[in-house]
Write a structure and sequence with these properties.
heterodimer; A: 116 residues; mainly beta; 6-stranded mixed β-sheet; 4-stranded antiparallel β-sheet; globular; B: 112 residues; 7-stranded mixed β-sheet
Amino acid sequence: AQKVTQAQTEISVVEKEDVTLDCVYETRDTTYYLFWYKQPPSGELVFLIRRNSFDEQNEISGRYSWNFQKSTSSFNFTITASQVVDSAVYFCALSGAKYNNNDMRFGAGTRLTVKP
Amino acid sequence: KAGVTQTPRYLIKTRGQQVTLSCSPISGHRSVSWYQQTPGQGLQFLFEYFSETQRNKGNFPGRFSGRQFSNSRSEMNVSTLELGDSALYLCASSFLAYNEQFFGPGTRLTVL
């Protein structure tokens, strides 16, 4: 069974603070994909990153960075120097890599509030 | 490139009625997936269509069904609506399997 756990339900920080959102996953597949999505108040899910299970390199995109560690089954997301516009619900998701098993399983989400 | 579009954006129905939601994927995308989002259950996968065939199905009752047309547009139908079906229904499209999915703005369904 595939499962994604985002233990942090809500996080509140002050602007310019760094914040890390945790994501732990479970899967029996050897090949799989991990994703992060952002859901601002408007409701539309915005794609942030996809990582396949064979690529453990950390990724940095501007103020965003991701740390993928297979040894701990974690795919954490860090926002550096947070801004008010980063306020949203962030979802971590896991997808299989088989023809009939590529549905995405989402975590419960972490609501991030960045205060000015 | 236009994003994923969903119609209608808001819908109010009463128990026992049925509803059809529509999704137009990004041009060139052949995979369309549907998700239900509720405060209690979060984001749950409903089903995925690829080239007019349902490839995957989540754990939802048979009242939830869908289809995909030759132009990749998709519809989902919910029959005999229940109060618990009130949710945000999100459609997502991707070019191929395992690619990142791009989501539409959703249809907010309220069942009274």
